[in-house]
């Protein structure tokens, strides 16, 4: 409970919305990324193309953000985002973010660990790695939210 309260306090202090998202309105997402990461920029483009309003904060020190968000090294990727009360780590497809918001499960967020080719922002020709979108709860429990081939 303390970690969740800390995360909500951090979210409020950094200006993240902690309210429920309206289904029809543009959904605001705040992305933290390295200023030199091209695949992160491509993922932001993917979100914008899918109707999200994206605020980007560039930083060379993402580790404190990931730690405060409750991410473990096994869940980590190159960028971290926040939408409502959820954490989105890595190259999560916009459709999965929309599904997360619509279903509103009791979870901390979604992650696509690593940087699988073929995931949004990691387009390299026709090559597509098999990857999973992982839902995590911040207490070490995870489950597969969706899977792509």
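-> sequence recovered:
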């Amino acid at each position: 409970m303390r970690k969740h309260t800390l995360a909500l306090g951090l979210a409020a202090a950094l200006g993240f919305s902690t309210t429920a998202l309206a289904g029809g309105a543009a959904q605001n997402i705040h992305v933290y990324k390295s200023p030199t990461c091209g695949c992160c920029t491509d993922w932001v483009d993917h979100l914008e193309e899918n109707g999200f309003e994206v605020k980007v904060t560039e930083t060379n020190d993402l580790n404190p953000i990931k730690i405060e968000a409750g991410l473990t090294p096994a869940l980590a990727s190159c960028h971290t985002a926040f939408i409502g009360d959820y954490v989105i780590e890595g190259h999560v497809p916009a459709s999965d973010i929309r599904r997360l918001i619509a279903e509103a499960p009791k979870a901390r967020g979604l992650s696509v660990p690593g940087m699988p080719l073929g995931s949004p922002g990691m387009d390299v020709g026709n090559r597509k790695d098999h990857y999973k979108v992982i839902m995590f709860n911040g207490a070490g429990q995870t489950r597969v939210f969706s899977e792509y081939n």
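The helical segments are 2-13, 38-49, 63-68, 94-103.
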